[in-house]
Amino acid sequence: MGFYKEDYEMIESLLESGRLKKGFKVCEFGAQDLCEDRNGERILNSNDRISPKGVYESYGAKEYCCIDLERYHNALNFDLGKDFKTEYGFDEKFDLVTCKDVGHWVFNQEAMWNNLHNLCKKGGVIIWRSPFGGGFAQGCYAYHHYKVLQLVFFNNYLLLGGYITEYLHDVANGKFDNFDKKPAEKLKMRNGADFIDAVEEYMGREGCWRYLPLKQGLPSVSFELMFLKQEDSPFIPPLTYYDEPERTITRNAKSVAQNCCPKISKNKVAIFGAARAGGVANEFAKASGLNVACVIDDVQTGTANFCAGGGGIIVSFNEFLEKYQNQCDFILVGPCQKGEIEGREGLKIPVFKLDMRWFVG
To answer: What are the angstrom distances between the C-alpha of 34 and each of 5, 13, 43?
Structure first.
């Protein structure tokens, strides 16, 4: 549980964007230790543990507390897996709530996330760091990156970006006290639509420590993400099930649109494909509040049978360019759509493809 160079950068970015303001209140899950300075240089200080409280105060925090059963740094002695309000009468609200390298040790995940969610005020930010797929011997859980994105959608968080890094824990001298850590890198993502691919690109690169034999150390890859809490509503676990795509695609559609769609200003889209994939895209458009201007198809003509009412007229690509392109924010493409529209000559607006991994998996 540490405070690193990327943590300074996150706080600075939140202050610069106005997400945090001077006088903010912060609560950290786990008694975090100051491990690096602003330049990423390791802080060496005998056996003493240094709290990051002073760093937060230097950025303008007016209140700092941390929660940890081991009670370092004057921590509140709460079990993260129990409801803070009912067990301890603790019901404060904070501008920033963090959970770094500790959440995956808590067996009751729903209770832990419920506490994180409830302590963060509406308009506040949650910062969360934990191992995922390949966090060998790291706690009770390693998180699936699809589920992390679905957690964002279920709770109408806005994913503000984050970092990714690797650890290699020394087997011979103790699993967790001695470790190597690579410098954290910003995830290569414009918005939530790029999150899954950005994580998988990092995981698949040559030289990733997860490919090393275990006799060299216990590897883990962790991401650290920032979530903006936009609603004062109960926490919802990201539990999904398989269903027909027409129904699955409507899950949390407004949050998916906010996190993943290209910029929306005209509130009109065109759908590519007049067959089933286009119909699935149409269900997403209806659920997310987007208006369909037309349906583009290279073969069919007339009216798309999935569009009751307006917006179902089928046009050729050339007709779309001439009559509809200037009305639309982007072209919406359903999952498993045959054919390709992206890159065609004359196309000046983005193409947005729905990914079923956002809705189930």
So the answer is: 10, 19, 7
Strand ranges for 68-156 from DSSP E: 94-100, 120-132
pLDDT tens per residue, range 299-333: 998 888 887 655 689 999 999 999 999 999 999 99
The partner residues of 225 in beta bridges, in order of sequence, read 128, 162
Q: Does position 174 have pLDDT exceeding 60, yes or no? A: no
Q: From CA 358, how far away is CA 347, in angstroms rounded?
A: 26
Tokens, residue 98: 């963090």
Q: What is the pTM of this model?
A: 0.92
Q: Which has more pLDDT, 120 or 140?
A: 120
For residue 29, report the phi and psi dihedrals to the nearest 5 degrees.
-85, 120
Task: Assign domain 245-358 to its CATH architecture.
Answer: 3-Layer(aba) Sandwich (3.40)
- Starting at the earlier edge strand, list the strands of the sheet with 302-303: 302-303, 313-315, 291-296, 268-272, 330-333, 351-353
Give the Cα separation of 154 and 150 in Å (integer): 6
Assign domain 2-229 to a CATH class.
alpha beta
Tokens of 190: 């414009």
Query: How many Å apart are CA 131 and CA 225, to the nearest integer?
Result: 12
Q: CA 291, 286, 304 angle in degrees (round to 5)?
A: 75
pLDDT in tens, 254-271: 999 999 999 999 999 999
Q: Residue 175 pLDDT > 60, yes or no? A: no
